[in-house]
Design brief:
The chain is an alpha/beta fold. It contains six helices and five strands; from the N terminus they run αβααββββααα. The chain is globular and about 35 Å long.
């Protein structure tokens, strides 16, 4: 599974307008709703918050991967938001998060969920790739970088 298979122009938000982790979740869930990927944004948001309460999904190096398994999606879906200014998302390294990869999967698709997490980890391992994503100004620029990675 490649990121480009999951990330399309209509599920990329750059720059994010949010200034808090919770607002990022709302903004990305709204993006998925507008793209026709979900029908119950409140249930999706609740699933993300419940997962986040276990421990933060903000990792290191400016990367956050909020994710949840929920029966309110039929297949694995993703949204990507970029916050050039950085947002405090309780990251493991204590630094602001800039790249928010939101993943949702039905409970029956654990394998695909793990594959998506692995693919994000692989793609964002490169500091130059992360920097280029953070300086992207449009969804098209983001998609071009993902295709080339």
């Amino acid at each position: 599974m490649a990121l480009i298979d999951l990330i399309t122009r209509d599920v990329v938000k750059v720059p994010l307008e949010s200034t808090s982790k919770e607002d990022v979740f709302h903004e990305l869930v709204d993006l998925l709703l507008k793209a026709g990927k979900i029908s119950d944004p409140d249930k999706i948001y609740d699933a993300l918050i419940s997962r986040e309460q276990l421990f933060s999904t903000a990792l290191e190096d400016g990367i956050a991967i909020p994710h949840a398994k929920t029966e309110y999606v039929d297949s694995l879906i993703m949204a990507l938001g970029i916050a050039p200014q950085g947002i405090d998302a309780d990251a493991l390294d204590g630094k602001p998060s800039h790249l928010f990869f939101l993943i949702l999967a039905p409970p029956s698709q654990s394998g695909q969920h793990i594959e998506a997490l692995t693919e994000i980890a692989r793609a964002t391992k490169s500091s130059s790739f992360r920097r280029l994503l953070m300086t992207s100004r449009t969804p098209d620029e983001v998609l071009e970088l993902i295709v080339d990675s």
